[in-house]
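User: Here's a structure from my thesis project, written as structure tokens. My advisor, Dr. K., wants to see whether a designed sequence matches the one we expressed. Can you design one independently, without my sequence as a hint?
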């Protein structure tokens, strides 16, 4: 069985926790996109793991994890992440693999990423991890894949600084390298989880271009980046928060207005721990945008929605969600492709009654307060997709399952 998990907003939806939760029943976890720009947090009892490149299944001792073809991998940061995991008691040796077709990120790419940001027509606020440079070189057909550093003919063409950098890691990388297509073919009947990074609104094609990342963070990216055909995917889960956030620049129609909603903004940011795991930047926060969420559900064929951070709204008198945009005095529900239109739309909100109840200890959907169920059911009706998992805290135990995701 093949399950895909993607972010259904602008990243930081809680994918790490959900992949970790579902990974308990998976045999293999394959991360299919992005690089060290991602920041996935997993909490197991009193240990917090912060992952950037390593797939979220790693903390289970028996799972195999793969860094897929669609990723761009900074090997220096990969080994530093693995060192940290080892110090936290995670034994990763022999069960972490890298697609030989994945591209590498060299130190010069990170410097160039920061330089290019200064002269960009539209500064994006990148993470400075060399992501855009690696994907640009890949498209320019001048990138370096893992397999290439073991190909004598290709290796000869590398620059001296690139060879010097690689030499430090070559011996450690060789046993981790696999042909992912062949690996998938040999593990056809295993339970595989394809883990996304970023969010579909940061996808190069579907996202709010140019304020996006450079990878394919949508469900389609699981195919090319995970070496699997679309017809082999059984389920596509879209993770979204009860509100929206975004890091870096770009349009955000439902962003809180600090003059009127400053208090709410602070509350959501502090209780939701809305600070970047990779850069430490405070995240921009706002109300749930259902226009954007429906667009993502439709363009990714999402079969189940996963709602996270619902507990962050526990103490609110009322809760708002955007159900349409007003553009030049016309109400629209299609997500605009024009960045100027998206910057100028005024959200049309629907107000819901708050639930004023602590949700963290609730284990069953039927035990949720009526007001919170009204919020969830409205989201389901609006998007046409059922909310099958609800997360009300960081711990694994703080998760409600309405449908067994692994059963066909
Ligand atoms: P996870 O996997 C949130 C954002 C950056 C910037 C834009 C481009 O933790 O959800 P890049 O360095 O990728 O070229 O930056 O994309 N960004 C993310 N925002 N979560 C992420 O990953 C992100 N990865 C990149 O802030 O606006
Ligand atoms: Mg993150």
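Assistant: Designed independently from the structure alone:
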């Amino acid at each position: 069985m093949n399950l895909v998990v993607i972010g259904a907003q602008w990243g930081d939806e809680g994918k790490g926790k959900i992949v970790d939760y579902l990974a308990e029943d998976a045999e293999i976890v394959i991360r299919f996109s992005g690089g060290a720009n991602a920041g996935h947090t997993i909490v197991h009892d009193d240990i917090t793991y912060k992952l950037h490149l390593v797939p979220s299944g790693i903390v289970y001792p028996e799972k195999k994890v793969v860094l897929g073809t669609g990723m761009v991998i900074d090997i220096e940061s990969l080994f530093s992440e693995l060192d940290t995991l080892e110090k936290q008691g995670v034994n990763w040796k022999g069960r972490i693999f890298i697609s030989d077709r994945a591209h590498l990120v060299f130190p010069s790419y990170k410097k160039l990423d920061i330089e290019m940001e200064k002269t960009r027509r539209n500064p994006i606020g990148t993470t400075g991890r060399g992501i855009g440079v690696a994907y640009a070189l890949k498209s320019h057909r001048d990138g370096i894949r893992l397999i290439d550093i073991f190909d004598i003919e290709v290796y000869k063409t590398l620059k001296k600084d690139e060879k010097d950098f690689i030499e430090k890691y070559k011996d450690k990388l060789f046993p981790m390298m696999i042909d992912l297509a062949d690996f998938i073919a040999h593990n056809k009947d295993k339970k595989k989880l394809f883990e996304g990074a970023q969010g579909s609104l940061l996808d190069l094609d579907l996202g709010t271009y140019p304020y996006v990342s450079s990878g394919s963070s949508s469900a389609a990216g699981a195919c090319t980046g995970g070496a699997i055909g679309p017809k082999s995917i059984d389920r596509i889960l879209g993770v979204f928060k009860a509100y929206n956030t975004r890091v870096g620049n770009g349009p955000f129609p439902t962003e809180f207005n600090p003059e009127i909603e400053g208090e709410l903004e602070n509350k959501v940011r502090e209780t939701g721990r809305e600070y970047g795991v990779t850069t430490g930047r405070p995240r921009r926060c706002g109300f749930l945008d259902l226009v954007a969420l429906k667009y993502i559900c439709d363009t990714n064929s999402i079969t189940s929605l996963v709602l996270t951070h619902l507990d962050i709204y526990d103490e609110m008198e009322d809760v708002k969600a955007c159900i349409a945009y007003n553009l030049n005095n016309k109400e629209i529900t299609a997500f605009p492709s024009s960045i100027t239109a998206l910057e100028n739309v005024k959200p049309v909100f629907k107000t819901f009654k708050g639930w004023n109840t602590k949700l963290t200890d609730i284990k069953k959907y039927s035990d949720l307060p009526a007001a919170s169920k009204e919020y969830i059911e409205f989201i389901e009706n609006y998007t046409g997709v059922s909310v099958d998992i609800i997360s009300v805290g960081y711990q694994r135990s703080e998760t409600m399952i309405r449908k067994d995701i692994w059963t066909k």
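When you compare it with your expressed construct, this may help: DSSP finds 13 helices and 20 strands in the chain.
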